[in-house]
Design brief:
alpha+beta; four-stranded mixed β-sheet; 4 strands; Rossmann fold; about 150 residues
Length: about 150
């Protein structure tokens, strides 16, 4: 074996032992494992989201009424019997959120009427221009009149 051949063979053997290459190989393996974990996590999060969103979607799919007014149609829920409580929560949201709050804070024996807030309903009154306070009050008054709520 010549000196040059021996040197090439030794260099090739040393190349396998070079720490930089081992680190690069380990780094690629770690990145591959992290990538696979990210994909699996994304799939599991997607499955959990689809499962969790079914209940809220089912809750708002039924239980509301639509009433037509000069301001457009208004979506609202009407539940219970007794004195009428007209419940509107302060933040944006649909009738389902107002109804949940009313159930939490009112004793049984009340009729609760809750409209969807503007921008959250399937109704035409959900347009942004209807969200201005004077128009909001007008629309709610129309709902009270149209739903035959003599005393609120």
């Amino acid at each position: 074996m010549t000196l040059i051949t021996a040197l090439l063979v030794t260099t090739a053997k040393l190349k396998c032992l070079v720490p930089g290459e081992r680190i690069a190989s380990m780094f690629r393996k770690i990145l591959t494992i992290l990538g696979l974990l990210a994909v699996v996590s994304a799939v599991l999060i997607g499955i959990a989201y689809r499962t969790d969103i079914r209940a809220p979607r089912a809750r708002v799919a039924t239980g509301s009424n639509l009433i037509n007014t000069p301001c457009g149609s208004i979506e609202y829920a009407d539940e219970g019997t007794g004195p009428v409580i007209f419940a509107i929560h302060g933040a944006g949201g649909g009738f389902d959120q107002s109804l949940d709050l009313a159930r939490a804070f009112l004793a049984p024996g009340f009729r609760v009427v809750v409209p969807s807030r503007f921008g959250k309903a399937i109704a035409q009154s959900s347009r942004q221009e209807n969200a201005a306070p004077p128009r909001n009050v007008r629309t709610i008054n129309l709902l009270i009149d149209k739903a035959n709520l003599a005393t609120v």
